[in-house]
Every structure is written in C-alpha cells, then in structure tokens.
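Title: Request for sanity check on LysR family transcriptional regulator prediction

Description:
We are preparing a figure and want to confirm that the structure record we downloaded matches what your pipeline produces today. Could someone re-run it with the sequence below and paste the raw structure tokens into this thread? We only need the token string, no images.
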Amino acid sequence: MQPFSRFLIYFLAVARHSSIRKAAEDLHIAGSAINRHILLGEKQLQTPLFERLPTGMRLTAAGELLYGCARRWVKDLDDLNRQIDDLKGIRRGQVDLLAPEALSRAFLPELVRRMKESHPGVVLNMNIRDTRRIHEALLSGEGDLALVLDPEELRDLVVIRRMSFPLGFVCRPDHPLAQHTAIRLTQCADYPMVVPEQPLALSSVFARLMDAGRIDPRISARANNVQMIISLVAAGIGIGFLSYLDVMSEVMRGDMAFVPLVGAHVPHLTLALVHDRTRQLSRTTHLVGNMIDEIMSRHVA
C-alpha cells in the first residue's frame, strides 16, 4: 500500500540521494518530472525545500523539517501494516534493529539464528551504527528497537532491559593472568599492555584507572579499533584492556581468556535494549524484543 503523494515520494528520494538525477535513476522516473513536482510542492508550501548547488541538492531548514516528518510517516505506515498483519494472524514481518559494532560478532548472529529457527518468516534488518548516533537514529524513526551502550539520555526512551559487562584484560589462554577469576590493576602493571586509543570510549576509562591507581603502565602498543587490539593480543604483543562484550565471541570459542578487573574505581559497561516511547510496537517487534531479552539474561554479569 502506497498512500503517499508523488511529491512526497519524489521529495524523499531527492533528499536521500541529494540529487535529482540519482533520485530519477532510483525511481525510474524522468528527472524533469521529479523537478516539476518538487517545484510545485515548494510553491504550495511557499518556501524552498532544497538549495540548488553545483554539487547537488541540499535540504533547507524547512526541508529538514519535512524530511523528518516524512520519515516518521513512512515508519508509522510500516507499523500499521505490521499490526494489520498481526490481526490477520500472519506469521511474517520485519523488524529494524539498531546496534553498535561490538555486538556484531556474537550477540547479533545468535539472535538472527534463533529467530530463524523459531520464526522463519520474520526478517531482522541489522543496522550497525556508531554508538553515539544510535539514540538519534532511533528517535528519527530509523529503527524499531535499539541496543545502546552506556545510555545517558533516556527521557524519550523506554528501557526494556539492562545488563552490564565487566571491564578487564583479555589475554591468550596460556597467559599467567588467565588462571585468575578476577584481578586488581596492580596485578597487571608488570605485563606489557595493548591499550585503547581515541575514539574508543575505553581510552579515557583506562587513563582514569591508571591515574587513580598511580600506575605507570608498560604500553607495548596502542590501537583505536577493538579487533586490532584483539589481534595484537593474539600475536603475543601484550594483554589488552577491553570489556567482556568486546571479546565475548573469542572467549566463547576458547581463543581468548578474559579476566575482569575488580576495585572501587572500576566501572562496568552498560547495555540497554530500548525503544522510542512515542511509538506503539507491533507484535512482531515485541517478539524480537523478548528474544533479545532472553539472550541478554543469559549473559548478565
């Protein structure tokens, strides 16, 4: 069902591609027809929606407002269609899930596998985003559910479940630290370390812990990518400061060992499953949320 006018369809395409030509190629419509509808819409609204630049089309402030509303209208229509399907008892549908990259190696593949086993007609659209942008992406209608790390602003969100992951050091299974169930920072000070660098959030956490413990670490390497840190640890360069979430898949396979840090100044990493409080969730979305909740409960630290 497509209840939207041609103008709105064309407007969304031009806004998405920042180009009438690319929008025309995407929609298989003549560019002149798209331009004519955009001009008519601007005339009716009595305000320009795009800046015409040599490099393409850029939304004006009014265009940004319309684009945000239109995206939400499209999302609301999807929700309506899913709820109608629910009333019909149709066991199909799709759910858009926003998540950080850290979950892409173990958590999300497990979710997709279990959903396919129990509800093969449900399609999960995995949208991996920068942690700092997931909140705004959810509120702009780009997802039905989101997994957010260390959420700060929760006023517009409903938290379905929270869980915490310890911070600590990852090492090879044959490393002396692997024999411990938990360690203090002073026990790690004599080992070469692979430490996180900006923009990884753990970089500032590591620096604070070192300052609080008055420890001068033996830094063997720095990296601003979690997978790079894991690779360096696997190569024997040193022990790596990460969260359990970062190395969950490697630990579960037995490729790495993770030893949590204990102490008064050691924080935990929080993961929250959330949704926009202004939207009504479909039965399919509730189904996926319950599955995520169940998986999270098995990993609570």
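Thanks, this matches our download. The mean pLDDT is 86.
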